[in-house]
Design a protein that fits this description.
- By secondary structure, this protein is α+β, with helices and mostly antiparallel strands.
- It has five helices and 15 strands.
- Among the domains are: 2-47, no CATH class; 95-256, Immunoglobulin-like, CATH 2.60.40.
- It has helices at residues 27-47, 50-91, 198-208, 259-281, 284-291, and strands at residues 2-4, 9-11, 20-21, 95-97, 105-108, 114-117, 121-127, 130-139, 145-153, 172-173, 179-180, 185-192, 213-220, 228-237, 240-250.
- A hairpin with an 8-residue loop joins strand 2 (9-11) and strand 3 (20-21).
Amino acid sequence: MKQLTTGQVVVITPGWGRPALDEDVPPGRSAACEGSVTKWRVMLFLATDWATISSLVTGAGTLVLALATFASVRSSNRSARIAEAALQEQRRPVLAPSRLDDPLQKVMFLDRSWLSAAGGRAAVEHVDGRVYLAISLRNVGSGMAVCQGWAVRPGFGSGRDLPMHAPVEEFRLQGRDMYIPAGDIGMWQGALRHPDDPLRAAVAELIDARQPFLVELLYSDQVGRQRTITRFGLIPAADSWLASVTRHWYLDWDGPRPETDVLAASEAVQRDQEAAERQAAVPSGATAEMDGAAPDGAPTAAVEPTATAARQPGPLGQ
């Protein structure tokens, strides 16, 4: 920057305020300029609020440290959740019916009654007003399964009729410690003996009539966590009873299938079943008339409708 004076030019350069003088600048004027710049610096130094500046710098440093701490804690929490989920999967039990080629298993009840069940089957007996139940199981999970309770649901409703398991408070506690190791087989047992128990009478009637019904088992891992409810269907077949699994509910953890998706699938299956029943109830001649053409181009003839029994939904749903 150039500053014009009377017949002379003084060149002021940035830096520490030391001016670069022309050869025509008198020495006295150069000393005066240096003195004014020095005074300006002193005044600026004295007018600076160093306490405010230090507070701002400290606050900025604290903010940066807080952001770094927040990111670190968030990452640590995520790692902890992943580790917890991995540990739970390593200890999660999942019960299912045993394989058909698994060996025969026997179990004794309190009154010294015995039941035996082959692989993939259940044992069901109604003797002297008492109901004895047993299921041959296999633990397909990776953790020890400990049976905690059980509930019997009369009938064999679809997912739309019985979308949820029985309330946990209605489960009957397991009186015997029943441990089923991971990847191995085991046996569940239950009995209905009380003469005034309405469930005993209902289940006894189903057994005598050879009708299917449901058994829901409540079990956990070895430390009592990861509670799971599995619904088994007991289906009569020839001279035995087959065991099939239909649903799993995880009580302490989100399951792999959202409940809304399961209900939607049950509704779709039920609609397909009802449509098939309506189609089966329509006589073949009436179907041809509805289509507007007879087979092989023959003229349509009046066909006397015949009564056709509608098929009932199968016990296996799909």
